[in-house]
Amino acid sequence: MNDYLEFKPIKNKYYSWYIDLIKKAKKREKILDCYQEFHHIVPKCLGGKDEDSNLVCLTLREHYIAHLLLTKIYAGEAKRKMYYGLWRMLLDVKTRNSRVFEIYRKKYIETSLKTQVITDEIRKKMSDNKIGVSKTKTEKAVQAWERQKIMYSGSGNPRFGVKLSEETKRKIGLGNKGKKRTEEQKRKTSESGKGLKRPAGTNVAEKNPMFGKKHSEETRRKISEAGKKRYQRMMAEEK
Fold first, then answer.
1. Which of 19, 23, 73, 88 could form a disulfide with 15 if both were Cys (CB 3.0 to 4.6 A apart)?
2. Where would I find the H helices in the chain?
3. Judging by beta carbons within 10 Å of its beta carbon (0-12, 13-18, 19+), is residue 56 exposed, middle or buried?
4. Is 125 exposed, middle or buried (0-12, 13-18, 19+ CB in 10 A)?
């Protein structure tokens, strides 16, 4: 292991096993009747170079064990990188064990949440990577719904300016009678209306002749007295 690297390995028993595996593979001759792969002794993501001194030929089984040991001898951000490397290797192996794949995929995610810091540079790279990438059916459906919401709002709505008959209102009322909206439905309804502005002239309040005006104190007094008289008449009729 090169000492100049920013990420230093933890010299535990797994480190010793890893070094022994590398030394054994370096000493032996190339196995002609067995498929082998090149392995970076110091991983490239941790500063390892594509040099003969940093490369070793391993069998598939040895290559998997080497990457598994690397996850045991690093910590922090380096550990996350090692889990990612192991997971990517399992993606490429056709006869992988599904349980092993699941375990190390979860470990990679857990270490990512604990160690990875999303910088502005990483966000830019993520954004650039999505340019030209085809959208999923869900993303297309959501965007289409957003466009329709804008297109059919206000005067764009085919029912704009159409008044419902009393019979239609009664049927709608009967249909909704007894129905209770869940908290989730209430929340979605509230969020869907946030930030939406009605076109000028479509606000119901604006059609009120008193919109933007205030009653005088004398008018308020008369309205109050008239209301009291109506209440007194109603109570008298009930008796």
1. 73
2. 13-27, 60-70, 76-92, 98-115, 120-129, 137-151, 166-176, 183-193, 217-238
3. buried
4. exposed
Q: What amino acid occupies position 38?
A: F
Instruction: Give the CB-side neighbour count of residue 107, counting CA atoms within 13 A.
Output: 21
- Tally the domains of the chain: 1
Take residue 121 and report the two structure tokens written for it. 């540079």
Is 44 contained in some domain?
A: yes
pTM of the model: 0.40
- Whether residue 172 lies inside any domain: the answer is no
Burial class (CB in 10 A: 0-12, 13-18, 19+), 103: middle
- Its domain, for residue 100, covers 13-127
The answer as to whether 176 is a domain residue is: no
Cβ atoms of 87 and 104 closer than 8 Å: yes
Tell me the sheet residues that pair with 38. Answer: 57
| In a domain? residue 83 | yes
